[in-house]
Amino acid sequence: MAASTVAGSLVDNQGFGIVSRDVKPRPRRPLTTRFYDGLKGGLQSLDRFSRMHDRFVLDDRRQRSNTLVCVLAGYKPELWPFVMPRLRLALPDADVCVVSPGLRLDSLAELCGSEGWSYLSTATNDVALAQNVCYRLHPDASMIVKLDEDMFLLPATISTLLTEYQSIRRQGAVDPGFVAPMIPLNGFCYRHLLEMLGLLEEYEARFGSARMATSGIAIQTDPAAALWIWEKTSPLITTAERLAIKGTRRLLCPIQFSIGLIVFERAFWEEIGFLPVYRHRLLTGISTLGGDEAYICGQALEKSRPGVVTTATCAGHFSFGPQYAAMKSLLDVHSEIFQR
Predict the structure, then answer these.
(1) In percent, how much of the chain has pLDDT > 90?
(2) φ, ψ for residue 103 (rounded to 5)?
């Protein structure tokens, strides 16, 4: 499919009417109050604009689907031969947009062209800003699948997540902020997975308490723990089948969740005021990585829309940062682990 290059901007239009009434005039507010309110409104508008706009190039292959799959990619090309074929097999009827925050790669543009996917590259290396731009450019998408380039999917992963999201909403116990699959290498999922597979005692004998947390635990810092988890859960399809035998469980997440793969509604993104963009950090060279994750999880709790993990499907997470070098060495020697 031929691609076109597009750009856009957010414009809000309001209509005003005049109604004539015989009413007493309101007392004028103090000048300082009016000045403060005007300044506050101006800053809020500026913040909204800042969250939604960046210089970008879009290789446009949009089909106006009501589902968007947004893939953050560009920094781990060594994983593409393993994750991209899995992504291709897992795609539902959806618009796919691969997003590269802060760079543009010809190789990725060519891949997207051959697959019929859109490719969005932004000027600023900020994942939250890049996502906001992507979501703004797909106004017809009521459901959004956000996916990182180091996630290993099964053929039914995305479609199952979309089905589970709607089922959870209909059930009515909670209104989910997002729904995620069972991810073995994840600070929340792993304990539940170890319990369901009968591996908890073996894990704790080697790595200590399988505490659920966002940081400071072996599953996120120790390369040996990542290697162990992958060896115990590969092939992923077999792990999914073992979990299915136990029956589907829906787990409410009480901690910050690593959002390598989540499904959520566009309305939730709008409800939380879009994703935060910390311009002052960007200007001073401070990393904003993880800001979208912390914000989404915090807002999910604040809005009483918790994150939900379903055991109806699973996906593999390659590694956390401190584990990457060791996992890459395993990939080089035993690539078959990641191909199954």
Answers:
(1) 80
(2) -160, 165
User: What tokens appear for 160 in the block?
Assistant: 């199952």
In the predicted structure, residue 93 carries a pLDDT above the cut 60: yes
Q: Residue 227: which residues within 8 A CB-CB, separation 6 or more?
A: 326, 327, 330
Whether the CB-CB separation of 108 and 82 falls below 8 Å is answered with: no
Rounded to two decimals, the pTM is 0.86
CATH superfamily of 56-339: Spore Coat Polysaccharide Biosynthesis Protein SpsA; Chain A (3.90.550.10)
Q: Cα dihedral angle (329, 335, 336, 340), rounded to 10 degrees? A: 100
Nearest to 292 by CA among 257, 316, 327, 325: 257
Tokens representing 75 are: 């920094």
Check if the beta carbon of residue 127 is closer than 8 Å to that of residue 63: no
List the strands of the sheet with 250-252, edge to edge.
Answer: 4-6, 56-60, 118-122, 95-101, 67-72, 143-148, 261-265, 178-182, 307-314, 250-252
Distance between CA atoms of residues 281 and 59, nearest Å: 29
> How does pLDDT run across 24-79, given as a tens digit for each residue?
566 677 777 655 555 545 444 545 656 788 999 999 999 999 999 999 999 999 99
Q: How many CB atoms lie within 10 A of CB 305?
A: 19
| Sequence ranges of the domains in the chain | 56-339
Positive or negative CA dihedral for 315, 318, 323, 329?
positive
Length of the chain: 340
pLDDT digit string, tens, across residues 115-153: 999 999 999 999 999 999 999 999 999 999 999 999 999
Write down the H helix ranges in the chain. Answer: 31-52, 80-90, 106-115, 127-136, 157-171, 189-197, 200-207, 218-221, 223-233, 236-245, 266-271, 279-283, 291-302, 324-333, 336-339
